[in-house]
Design goal:
The complex is a heterodimer of chains A (503) and B (95). Chain A is of the alpha/beta class. Chain A contains 15 helices and 11 strands. Chain B has a two-stranded antiparallel ribbon. Classes of the chains: A alpha/beta (503), B mainly alpha (95).
Chain lengths: 503, 95
């Protein structure tokens, strides 16, 4: 039998339906792959007993002819999604022992549709980061290596410079790329689905704000956070999103809107569509390979019958600075709940304030403390109008830029997903936090405007590392993104890791 | 705008995060780097712009104002670092 972990979700569903193999076989194949792949640090908690029991239940449902749309498909869950009776840490010491007595809506939907949980995946602490280096667990490692790199050959693990899998959903991207799960849940506040997908040759979609329920997901910045999948190809991402999406009474920002059959949009003709190329994304010092990737992408869409037009999104350059006001402000408010009283870590203090201060100093990592403090400052008396209100006004302008482009007839916008390929662990942001923040320069506008965006792999850089393109759509038009992304995928092929050096 | 060390300590206290004397100068540099980065927003004339208050325009969902859940005190205190029965325990706050 072929290695079952090589199958896409669509292929695995087909094999399960035809009874070529069982859900138990499929889950066992992944559990074995996870064991061999432990040095990648993708999982922070494996749940093999749960996986085996869920797979057995799937086999029983398949036998009764009651299979759900994702029946028996093994999934990894970002450790930001609360899972009932399974430790959920947000990869922070402050939640090191937190065991939720409830299940997030997204994971509930997955189990409702028959998916199997393999375990919890690494992420940046509270999803704050672009390299997964802020996790309280060991940094996950990108299964891709620079050409000629000897990473992984040294005794006991890694020699040379291992690469980051992006962040904040770095465990998700590493696990999907290394085939340690068939697909993964992820979240995106400024690029945390699309950037890790681009850095690992996988597909990631951040849906429109309100498309997917945020209930039961550890909150970072509530007006920007949105959950979505990371998958091996466009069709798998579409299948997963159909399960993720849907109305939820527990999240007032989640829309009551029918969920389309996204997979039906994959492979559809894009003839006659208009694709916008925003000139403001042509940033100073853009590497040649990124420019070429972008030009090639436009050429592919042109050959598929789309009209390519240059557009202007004049407030693009202000998206990232405005984000670094809005996101920390919301984070400082959301993270006020970690007080050492109701759940999570507690450090004793001489009085209640001392207890709060010691608990939060010990429980939060450096980047999280920094962002809470920036957020506290921009919301403090005397600075609120100068910073927070101004940033929210910029958000209005950024959103209007997109609305004008779509009103002029643009169906989707093509941009690079990231300014570079994967970088080495420890290479960025140690001196100046802004250096790391620039990773999200192409993705953050989409969160500020609440729009959907997909990252699809489209080529390799001179070091042999994957690069991704981003497509930005109209609000609630994820289907167009799947159609256009599948044209790029068809032209460029998929980007599986060929060298499985880890085991 | 930039922050001095006294402001760093004041922000830390507002955020209820203890900082050591050694951390203050580093935090001051890092916060000032971020504040310098966001300074460019001042280039834009926003005098006639409404701040964004809703990401996706939609009518706020409403529900009946009734008790719809409850009776789960055990679950609510299950993760408490210190508790007494169904109460969260904290150091004495009222003399």
């Amino acid at each position: 039998m072929t290695d079952l972990t090589q199958l896409t979700i669509a292929e695995a569903c087909d094999g399960l339906t035809k009874k070529t193999f069982s859900a138990a076989d499929l889950t066992q194949a992944y559990l074995a792959a996870m064991e061999k792949g432990r040095k990648l640090n993708a999982y922070v908690l494996e749940t093999p007993e749960k996986a085996v029991a869920m797979a057995a239940a799937s086999d029983a449902r398949i036998a009764r002819g009651e299979a759900g749309p994702l029946e028996g498909i093994p999934i990894g869950v970002k450790d930001l999604f609360c899972t009932k009776d399974v430790r959920t840490t947000a990869c922070s010491n402050i939640l090191a022992n937190f065991v939720p007595p409830y299940e997030s809506t997204v994971t509930s939907n997955l189990w409702r549709d028959g998916a199997v949980m393999l375990g919890k995946l690494n992420n940046d602490e509270f999803a704050m980061g672009s390299s997964n280096e802020t996790s309280c667990f060991p940094t996950p490692i990108n299964p891709w290596r620079r050409q000629g790199s000897n990473a992984g050959v040294g005794p006991g693990g890694i020699d040379g410079t291992p690469l980051v899998p992006g962040g904040s959903s770095g465990g998700s991207s590493a696990a999907v790329a290394a085939m340690l799960c068939a697909g993964a849940t992820a979240t995106d506040t400024g690029g945390s689905i699309r950037q890790p997908a681009a850095l690992t040759g996988t597909v990631g979609i951040k849906p429109t704000y309100g498309r997917v329920s945020r209930w039961g997901i550890v909150a970072f910045a509530s007006s920007l956070d949105q959950a979505g999948p990371i998958a091996r190809d466009v069709k798998d991402a579409a299948m997963l999103l159909r399960t993720f999406a849907g109305a939820d009474a527990k999240d007032t920002t989640c829309v009551d809107r029918e969920v389309p059959d996204y997979a039906a949009a994959v492979g559809k003709s894009i003839k006659g569509m208009t694709i916008g190329i925003p000139r403001e994304y042509r940033i100073d010092g853009m590497p040649e390979e990124i420019q070429k990737l972008w030009d090639d992408g436009a050429q592919i869409l042109k050959e598929a019958g789309a009209n390519i037009v240059e557009i202007s999104l004049p407030h693009t350059k202000y998206a990232l600075p405005a984000y670094y006001i809005v996101a920390p402000a919301e984070a400082s408010s959301n993270l006020a709940r970690y007080d050492g009283v109701r759940y999570g870590l507690r450090e004793p203090g001489k009085d209640i304030v001392d207890l709060y201060e010691k608990t939060r100093a010990k429980g939060f990592g450096k980047e999280v403390r920094r962002r809470i403090m920036i957020g506290t400052y921009v919301l403090s008396a005397g600075y609120y109008d100068a910073y927070y209100v101004r940033a929210q006004k910029l958000r209005t302008l950024i959103k209007q830029d997109f609305e004008q482009a779509y009103a002029s007839g643009v169906d989707a916008i093509l941009t690079p997903a990231t300014p570079s390929a994967a970088f080495g662990i420890g290479e960025k942001g140690s001196a100046d936090p802004v250096e790391m923040y620039l990773q999200d320069i192409f993705t953050v506008t989409v969160n500020m405007a609440g729009l959907p965006g997909i990252a699809v792999p489209a080529g390799l850089d001179p070091q042999g590392l994957p690069l991704g393109l981003q497509l930005i759509g109209r609000a609630f038009d994820e289907e167009t993104l799947f159609s256009v992304a599948s044209v790029i995928e068809k032209a460029k092929g998929r980007f599986p890791v060929s060298d499985r050096w880890w085991g | 705008m930039s922050v001095d060390q006294a402001t760093v300590r004041r922000i830390a206290h507002l955020a209820r995060i203890a900082v050591t004397d050694e951390e203050v100068p580093h935090l001051q540099d890092e916060l000032n780097a971020i504040l310098a980065f966001v300074e460019q927003l001042n280039e834009v004339d926003v005098s006639n712009v409404e701040p964004m208050t809703s990401v996706t325009p939609m009518a706020m969902k409403k529900r009946q104002d009734v008790v719809s859940d409850g009776g789960i005190a055990d679950l609510i205190v299950a993760n408490a670092p210190e508790r007494e029965g169904h109460f969260f325990a904290v150091p004495k706050v009222v003399e």
